[in-house]
Design goal:
Elements (H helix, E strand, L loop, with lengths): L6 E3 L2 H16 L1 E3 L7 H4 L29 E3 L1 H7 L8 H28 L1 H10 L7 H27 L21 H19 L3 H23 L6 H5 L1 E4 L4 E4 L26 H14 L10 H5 L5 E5 L6 H19 L3 E5 L11 H14 L4 E6 L2 H4 L10 H15 L9 E7 L7 H5 L3 E4 L6 H12 L2
Parallel strand pairs: 1-4, 6-9, 6-10, 7-8, 8-9
Antiparallel strand pairs: 2-3, 4-5
This protein binds adenosine-5'-triphosphate and magnesium ion (MG).
Adenosine-5'-triphosphate (ATP) binds next to α12 and α17.
């Protein structure tokens, strides 16, 4: 994998150098929880009506009145190996542990990089020597906090990324991450590892759940840190640059999670171009569009056709029932699928269908958003279709349209030509309908092209279609 513009490499030696420290974190350390509550204690039942408040309260204002918990030992390696316990660590347990170690090492390496770039390491040295000036104290504290936040997020991000290929469909609810300490990076990692240790102990009883707990924990951690980072100062060095860890293909882009781009496995019947009779203009436009998509440049995330013109981001295909609209989708998806197979690109096809309309307020809009986002993903070639759009998207002011259908209309309108629409040229959306006049005017207007699908017209067309349908 090559580096994109503005991307820096997090060198393998730097990550390796942190490996022993990461291993030490997994093998064992002492930690006294400050925010989180140990699971064993939290599990104690109380009689109803008996409050949990302490009877004696310090009256000194500002003094933390919470009882300091005793330091407990955290042994993650033993904890993980004890899951399902049959004496020897299993391949899954070994994978989880090496993912945790690798992620901690990456996080620490990034922390070191951050410290070097911001001058934090010089401040740390001055602090150790006792020469840190009073004027630098605020900056020092803020930088330590920024480093801790960056390290924690990268840790969660790396765990989620590296563990993704091993995840099963088992999902576990871990709740929010509490023990987020931002005094400095090593303490921050200890805090979250302590909590992870608690979660594994309480929630993982077999290997699938172990992976589920760790993955869910990583997601919860990223969410928590990203929310914290909104208001935290001095993070520009981290958010302004991006890093790449070559060996894992892992990219760090500030506080946005790295996801492994996944194509979707498509279960649909593909049609070959010769199986589409008539519909000449639509057919050739679709074939051209499929080829144009292949000009997408994954490195710069742009398609020359999108810049020069001629790229069709959205189109509408309309025609009478049974004239070959669905057939056209099958042909186009088939062609893109084939081209992507040859070029080694990931292809994602999604169809927005009636199933996506939900009776819950807001859920239909979310479904439509998820559909759009999946197709827009700049790491894949995308093709999104909305077959029979008049049934799915509503028309504003029409009493017959359900609230869900109207939500879908508004999301599509925003996505196709809204204030923050970026046409990169990696994907295209097709809308198909028998009754385009039933589609909201503004949505119909957003289609960049109209493909007329009027089916077979001439005597020859009908002979062709008869030959096709009769087969041998
Ligand atoms: N132009 C065509 N070329 C080849 N086959 C066609 C064509 N039009 C229709 N057919 C045949 O008719 C069947 C129905 O076509 P298709 O499902 O594509 O129609 P549609 O336009 O999507 O209809 P609807 O509007 O009802 O969804 C297909 O299985 C296909 O075999
Ligand atoms: Mg159809």
């Amino acid at each position: 994998m090559s580096l994109n513009a503005g991307q820096m490499e997090l060198r393998e030696e730097a990550v390796r150098a942190e490996s022993p420290a990461a291993l030490a974190l997994l093998s064992g350390f002492e930690h006294a929880p400050r925010v989180g509550v140990a699971r064993e204690m939290a599990g104690v039942e109380r009689s109803p009506g008996v409050g949990a408040a302490r009877r004696f309260r310090s009256t000194t204002p500002g003094l933390v009145t919470r009882q300091v918990a005793r330091a407990g030992a955290v042994h993650l390696v033993e904890r993980v190996e004890a899951v399902g316990g049959d004496g020897l660590p299993s391949p899954v347990q070994a994978t989880v542990l090496s993912v945790l170690r690798r992620s901690a090492a990456i996080a620490l390496a990034l922390g070191a990089e951050f410290a070097a770039r911001t001058g934090l390491d010089a401040l740390k040295r001055a602090n150790l020597e006792g020469t840190l000036g009073a004027d630098k104290r605020v900056a020092f504290g803020e930088l330590l906090q920024a480093e801790a936040l960056a390290v924690l997020h990268v840790f969660g991000n790396a765990v989620a990324f590296l563990l993704a290929p091993h995840a099963s469909e088992v999902t576990v609810e871990v709740g929010g991450v509490e023990e987020v300490l931002t005094d400095n990076a090593p303490l921050a990692l200890q805090g979250v590892l302590w909590e992870l240790d608690q979660d594994i102990g309480a929630l993982a009883s077999d290997e699938a759940q172990l992976v589920g707990v760790v993955a869910a924990f990583a997601e919860a951690l990223m969410e928590k840190i990203a929310a914290r980072a909104v208001t935290a100062p001095r993070l520009e060095t981290f958010t302004g640059a991006s890093w790449q860890v070559e060996a894992d293909g892992f990219a760090i882009n500030g506080f946005s999670p790295a996801r492994k781009a996944k194509g979707s496995t498509i279960t649909m019947q593909f049609k070959k171009p010769h199986e589409v009779v008539g519909n000449h203009i639509a057919k050739y436009q679709a074939m051209r569009l499929a080829k144009m998509l292949m000009a997408y440049d994954f490195e710069h995330k742009l398609n020359p056709f999108a810049e020069l013109g001629g790229f069709i981001f959205t189109f509408i295909g309309d025609g009478k029932p049974g004239t070959g609209k669905t057939t056209l989708i099958q042909m186009m998806a088939g062609m893109i699928h084939e081209y992507c197979g040859v070029a080694g690109y990931l292809f994602r096809y999604q169809n927005l269908s009636v199933d996506n309309i939900d009776s819950y307020q807001g859920k239909s809009g979310q479904n439509a958003r998820a559909f759009i986002n999946a197709v827009l993903d700049p790491a894949v070639i995308g093709f999104g279709t909305i077959d029979d759009i008049d049934q799915i998207a509503g028309k504003r002011g029409d009493r017959q349209s359900s609230a869900g259908a109207l939500e879908i209309t508004s999301v599509l309108m925003d996505a196709f030509a809204g204030a923050n629409t970026v046409v990169r040229g990696n994907c295209t959306f097709g809308m198909f309908s028998n009754y385009p006049e039933n589609v909201d005017d503004a949505l119909r207007q957003r289609a960049g092209a109209r493909f007329l699908v009027d089916g077979p017209q001439t005597r020859e067309d009908y002979i062709d279609i008869l030959a096709l349908l009769l087969g041998k």
